Amino acid sequence: MKRAIYQVAVGPKSKLYEQCIESAARYAKEVGADHIVQRQPKLRIVPDIFRTNREGKTGGWKKMGYLPIFEKENAFELLGDYDQILILDADIYIRPTASNIFEELGDEFAFGGVNECDMPINSKHLAKIQNYSRMQYGQCHTNNWRQQDSFGFAFYNMGLMLMNSAKILPYLRNQSPREFLNRPEFRDMVDGVGNYRWSTDQTLLNYWLNKENIPCKNLDWKYNGLYSSLQEGYIEECEFIHFYLRDNLPESGEDFNNLIEKII
Fold first, then answer.
1. What pLDDT, on the 0 to 100 scale, is given for residue 253?
2. What is the pLDDT at residue 264?
3. Helix axis angle, 123-137 relative to 201-211, nearest 10°?
4. What does the pLDDT look like over 125-177, one tens digit per residue?
5. Is the pTM of this model over 0.90?
6. Where would a tag sit more exposed on the chain, N or C end, judged by fewer CB atoms within 10 A?
7. Is 19 a residue whose pLDDT tops 60?
């Protein structure tokens, strides 16, 4: 079984990202996977300037000249070279004691991810995703879409994506990553039209999985523990810790050792 862990780290370097990437490199060696880190943008996807409403955090494309939020899809090019690929955000730290996530995805599934409505989230995050779910998925949901009364539309946190190559490739229709992202059905999401002004590849990929009824497995929430968004005492149980929203972390996560001490 040939496996890879794919990460993207473009833009200014960060101690937080580098330490998390180092943990992924160590983990890859332990589970017998290749570790691939993309350091330079390749796709350089830009929204249509005459349609986009993007600004704020997803509007950084004006400064960078492209949307870095879609660079992870470059991993799709490697699906033909590996049996399984784990696409992992650069702000996810993997504990040294973590189990082998590749063994969690059965042969019958194309995709594995952690659904946010399955996480033991706190009340603050619950209020946040109720609004997020309605704004992002209320206008693009399909008949296949799972709903939770208290959460709204269920969605995968795409900071972690595990794929069985043979199962997922047919749904890519031999398209390159650029061709995939340029599908007409994704145009509003890429351009950031209306409520999609705040969207990342998370909206696009969740819509794709549901629209095409791709066989998905809900992985245990311990593989994508959202730091500061779980109920008290749960982050210590996580094997993969997602330090998302870096700007909200103490010192933006740059005092990494102090950050890790809080979750041991």
1. 65
2. 66
3. 70
4. 999 988 888 889 888 877 778 877 677 889 999 999 999 999 999 999 999 99
5. yes
6. C
7. yes
C-beta separation of 216 from 113 below 8 A: yes
CA distances from 117 to 113, 129, 152 (A): 12, 9, 9
Q: Are strands 111-115 and 156-164 parallel, antiparallel or unpaired?
A: antiparallel
93 contacts 108 by C-beta, under 8 angstroms: no
Give the model confidence (pLDDT) of 208-248 as tens digits.
999 999 999 999 999 999 998 999 999 999 999 999 877 76
Contact 9, 17 (CB under 8 A): yes
Q: What is the mean pLDDT of residues 16-31?
A: 96
Pick from 99, 93, 96, 69: which is nearest to 18 by CA? Answer: 93
Distance CA 166, CA 161 (A): 15
* Amino acid code (one letter) for 6: Y
CB atoms within 10 A of CB 198: 17
